[in-house]
Amino acid sequence: MAQIVINNLRKEFGSFTAVQSSSFTIEDGEFFMLLGPSGCGKTTTLRMIAGLELPTSGQILLDGQDVAQMRASARDIAFVFQMFALYPHMNVRKNISYPLVSQGMARKDVRERVEEVARILDIGNILDRPVGGLSSGDRQRVALGRAIVRQPKAFLMDEPLGALDAEFRERMAEELRALHDRMGATTVYVTHDQLEAMQMGDKIVVMNHGVVEQFGTPQNIYDWPATMFVADFIGSPPMNFLHFEGAVKPGTGSIRLNDVEVAVPVQAGEASGKLALGVRPEHVVIDDNSPVRGIVTATEYLGTTQIISVATQGGNLKVRAPSSRIVGVDSQVGLSFRQGALTIFDTKTGRAVL
Ligand code: ATP
């Protein structure tokens, strides 16, 4: 097991900077997500942790020891490649044993360790089957078995479920998480899927254009996005932004939004100019008594809830409301915002100021 500290890690490819000085800490035993859109530098970060790519500068402290410039094989970290990459001519037992046999472990010890892994993954009954005829779920378990058999300090996974269809993907995600909870090994997992990151991760790093936008627990990132990028990338539908021009000061407790006074949390930072009020769809309430008005442009039925699109002076926003609340398209509605669930962004820097 291992703690991994990433300290000012940077990677340049020629004149292109794929990862700008990144810093975050992966605690021992955490299921840690590297999340961001395509090209944001998450795979490059993972490959540097693995030792498949050498950083331009910065440190990777594995239990306190800087391994940034060390060979991959010296790091005792397992990179779980494409989950289906098995040796097709070998049976399940041989596939799982392979890393131990190639390390020169005694046959009896190999046998014991493989049986133990098979128990953890519940694949004891297929150990002597060829991998060719296995279901995709079993193939995935065998591939995992080959990764965990060596008991490395940490596991690295790059979109391991990316190729799977939705239903199977969900099941494997649950299995992976359960497996992690049983073994407790530090796991670093790359994904571009915010839902997967929120569901599986203990902590998430959100990256964009090679920059760490935010680092924290799923709840922290969802409730208190540090930047407009994070607010927009996380959540479905994403956070609403209502644009306004003005000033907020610590302790004022309210802002003027198109001539309407809106209360905001009082622990305010200071900002002025072009600002945006960020509010999640579930924190907007259709409220006939509110002076903030808008016109309903569409409704989307989702079962117990619905998403109501409303055009306001400050911009369009989406409201998550119970389906029992009937609103007509083109009708005028009042909107209020739940206290304690608002964020103010400076649109120039994109950063939260409250
Ligand atoms: P994806 O999900 O598409 O893999 P990613 O977030 O994992 O995206 P990276 O693979 O880390 O992104 O790539 C980050 C940027 O670095 C991309 O613009 C990519 O083109 C560039 N890059 C990655 N590897 C190299 C390389 N060996 N040489 C040059 N540029 C590279």
From TrEMBL:
It holds the Pfam family ABC_tran. Its main location: membrane. It is a peripheral membrane protein. Residues 4-234 form the ABC transporter domain. One of its GO terms (molecular function) is ATP hydrolysis activity. GO terms for cellular component: ATP-binding cassette (ABC) transporter complex, substrate-binding subunit-containing. It is found in: Cell inner membrane. Gene3D superfamilies: 2.40.50.100, Nucleic acid-binding proteins, P-loop containing nucleotide triphosphate hydrolases. InterPro entries: AAA+_ATPase, ABC_transporter-like_ATP-bd, ABC_transporter-like_CS, ABC_transpr_MalK/UgpC-like, Mo/tungstate-bd_C_term_dom, NA-bd_OB-fold, P-loop_NTPase, Transp-assoc_OB_typ2. Keywords: ATP-binding, Cell membrane, Membrane, Nucleotide-binding, Translocase, Transport. The keyword Membrane applies. It comes from the Bacteria. Belongs to the ABC transporter superfamily. This is ABC transporter ATP-binding protein. The lineage of its organism: Bacteria, Pseudomonadati, Pseudomonadota, Alphaproteobacteria, Hyphomicrobiales.
